[in-house]
Each structure stands twice: as C-alpha cells, then as structure tokens.
Design goal:
Helix content: over 70%
Strand content: under 5%
Mean pLDDT: 86
Order of helices and strands: HHH
Distance between the termini: 81 Å
Shape: rod-shaped
Amino acid sequence: MDLFKDLTLNAIQIIQLMLAPAVMINACGLLLLGINNKYSLVVNRIRLLNEEKRRLMVKIGEHEPSFEENVRLESTSVQIAALVYRAKLVRNAVLCYTTAVALFIFTSLLVGISSFMSIGKLNFFIITAFLTGMIFVLIGIIYAGLETKKGYDIISYEVRAHE
C-alpha cells in the first residue's frame, strides 16, 4: 500500500513540475494575442499611409504642389519609415514570445521524459530550457515596450507636423 502512495505522490509532483511551463505557455499566449493585435494595426496603418502617399504623388504630378501637400507628403514618408521600424519591433516581440513557448513546451517534455526514464542529468537541461524561455519572454517584453514608445513618438510627430 505504501508503494502505491509513493507512486501517486510522485505522479502529482511530476504533474506540478509540468504545469509551471504550461502556465508560462498560457501567459505567452496572452502576450502573443495582444502583440498580434498591435501588429495588425501597424500593418494597416502602413497600408493606409502608403495609399495616401500614392494619391498625393499622383496629385502633385498633375500640378504644382501646395505647401500643405508638401508637408503631408513629408509627414507620410516619415511616418511610414517609423511604422516599418515599429513593425520590426513587433515582429521581434512575436518571435521572442513564440520561441519562449517552444522552450516551455520543450521543458514540459523534458520533465515528462525525465520522470519516466529517471534521468537526473536532464535536470540541468530542464532548468536551462525554462530559464532561457523566461529570458525570451523578457526580451519580448522589452521589444513590446520599445514598440509602444515608438508608437507614441509617431503620434507626437504627426500632431506636431500639422500644427
């Protein structure tokens, strides 16, 4: 009877060990959901500004551009360049979060494998994979923070350009 009790406790401990990476996978999923929404908005804004820039170029080609048209053309060009940079920041955040998810899945698999095979040497790889996943989450958050700052800079520029 005591042997069965020890096996049950061991199984519960293994499940608990496998849940920590699962919680992080869930957290990364939420971060990915938010950052993918930002990515869609940035890409949509780039497309709108590109379309506006094309229309302005056609209009300017037909007659001498006004001061307002020149200001707006310059503004759209600056904003497009800044938004492309912002899109790269979002892309990097997405790649970091996705890599973190992969590492957390790998961690869970290693925990499961080590529990069945009783390989103590895997502990180093388990901890390394989990910590590396956490580092990728941190880097992704830094990219997301930089992207938020860049978004504010773009809005500030647009407001100043039309004053």
